[in-house]
Amino acid sequence: MRKIPVDFTGVRVTALLELYLRWLDSRDRHPILGDEWARQAVDRLDFDFAQFTSLGIGRFAVGVRSRMMDDWVRDFLGRTPGAVVLDIGCGFDSRVRRVDPAEGHHWYDVDFPDIVEIAGLLYPPRPGHTAVGASVTEPGWLDSIPRDRPAIVVADGLLNFLPEPDVRRILTQIVEHFPSGEIVFNITSPVVRKQRERRPVPVFVKFGISEQWFPGDPRDVEGFHRRLHLAEVGSPGDGSLLSRSPLYYRLLVALIGLVPAWRNAGWILRYRF
């Protein structure tokens, strides 16, 4: 089958990086996420994924956070009839296929138009699924999404790459668009920002990728809107999910946990509104 050419720069490259890390996880003997769609997608894209080899250890953190978010989405849909799912900055993620929502739950994937176009070539159409080609930082991106149903909104690997004013505006728009729901996303703390300043990630430098938002505490987000309330804090070092990872990685996570400054370097967060 003919490969699909990809020529990205900037933040769009993170869609390829996240896909690559899910693909690596799928190849592990005991995968955390086990996304078979990622394996097929990597094979279809004409891109040199070997550029990401040095970041391969990131597959464990990506596996944990994606698995946790999948579970949160399933939990929400199981107790919220008629709810919709909004996956913003979805990239080439196959989450809708992993979660496999029941009939009556419509799913919207939102990302740049060129990413949505390529994703449409990678994955077959699915009933109850709509892809929206739009930037979440531009006006009107929510216009095509129904506003009369509860929603769970996923931002997996997105918000770190936006400035705080944009994050605040996006979360406010979401809260005011839907009658009720949840928002789940991952984020890293200022500890990581200091590390990046001392030792930039070569792949990020090469492609012009910039991380911009590093909140100091998950509670800070509650100040963005009076209806936002922190419901759950997960960790990329979640022991129950990492039990399937290699011993060397579990030891590394344990060592990191002994350093107070690094113990809360990143979070997987769930908010209710």
UniProtKB/TrEMBL annotation:
Q: Which molecular-function annotation in GO is an example for this chain?
A: methyltransferase activity
InterPro entries xref list: Ppm1/Ppm2/Tcmp, SAM-dependent_MTases_sf, TcmP-like
Q: Where is the signal peptide?
A: none
Output the GO biological process annotations, alphabetical, semicolon-separated.
methylation
Q: Which UniProt keywords apply?
A: Methyltransferase, Transferase
Is Transferase tagged as a keyword?
yes
Alphabetized Pfam families for the sequence: LCM (PF04072)
Q: Does the keyword Iron apply?
A: no
Q: What is the recorded name of this protein? A: O-Methyltransferase involved in polyketide biosynthesis
